[in-house]
Write a structure and sequence with these properties.
Elements (H helix, E strand, L loop, with lengths): L1 E5 L3 H13 L3 E5 L2 H10 L4 E5 L7 H9 L6 E5 L4 H9 L4 E4 L4 H16 L5 E4 L2 E4 L4 E4 L2 E3 L3 H12 L7 H9 L8 H14 L7 E4 L3 E4 L13
Parallel strand pairs: 1-2, 1-3, 3-4, 4-5
Antiparallel strand pairs: 6-7, 7-8, 8-9, 10-11
The structure holds calcium ion.
Protein name: Heavy metal response regulator transcription factor
Pfam family, one: Response_reg
GO molecular function: phosphorelay response regulator activity; transcription cis-regulatory region binding
């Protein structure tokens, strides 16, 4: 993955640069909006990670100019946890956003999701073991049996299924499915997971796993695999 980071905080730049290069990414860095715009327009990146508060030219201005000519996927980073910022970023053509501070693994998951989305059109069906999720009709089946899900449960299932095999924290699930920061109130996620599990994991091997202290993962594990599922 070829990534441009536009960020002025040295600590964040170091953290991202180290993490991404360790994961085999090629990384360019711009420490202000003007250099960021220049590099983003000149090169073809798989993703641009774009801070909002930047010297020279802010992230929204960079995004605006980039979008006039290119559809390079952009993840905005913002320290300001305001709805206005998110709405504005997405309205201006950002593909995703992360609120600082964020975990590196969460950024990585979003980057992978974005590049996958960009590489191929979204599949119409997600399949995990004998679980089939039809994104068009918004229906889910397990071993041929229809599963009755609420809109939120379906959104939760899709969020997990799109990141099959990746552990999602309660916080990132809260952001993705409820579009908000729950912070302390991640109980909502726990309750929803429990309900979803009671619907999808009735028959066959368990697909929705709890990873203690980390979050949840949807995957079909090989028979006899060690499990650390906790209720
Ligand atoms: Ca900044």
């Amino acid at each position: 993955m070829n990534i441009l980071i536009v960020e002025d905080e040295p600590k964040t730049v170091d953290y991202l640069y180290r993490g991404l290069t360790e994961h085999g990414c090629t990384v360019d860095i711009a420490r202000n909006g003007i250099d960021g715009r220049h590099l983003a327009l000149q090169n073809n990146y798989d993703v641009v990670v774009l801070d909002v508060m930047l010297p020279g030219l802010d992230g929204f201005a960079v995004l605006h100019e980039l979008r006039a000519v290119k559809q390079t996927p952009v993840i905005m980073l913002t320290a300001r946890d305001s709805i206005e910022d998110r709405v504005r970023g997405l309205g201006d053509g950002a593909d995703d956003y992360l609120i600082k501070p964020f975990s590196f693994l969460e950024l990585l998951a979003r980057l992978q999701a974005l590049t996958r989305r960009n590489r191929a059109q979204e599949p119409l069906q997600l399949v995990i073991g004998d679980l089939k999720i039809d994104l068009l009709s918004r229906k889910a089946h397990r071993a041929g049996h229809r599963i009755d899900l609420t809109a939120k449960e379906f959104a939760l299932l899709v969020a997990l299924a799109r990141r099959e095999g990746q552990i999602l924290s309660k916080t990132s699930i809260a952001e993705m499915v409820w579009d908000m920061n729950f912070d302390s109130n991640t109980n909502v996620v726990e309750v929803a997971i429990k309900r979803l599990r009671s619907k999808i994991d009735v028959t066959g091997p368990r697909l929705l796993h709890t990873i203690r202290g980390m979050g949840y993962v949807l995957e079909l594990r090989p028979e006899g695999a060690a499990t650390d599922d906790a209720e």
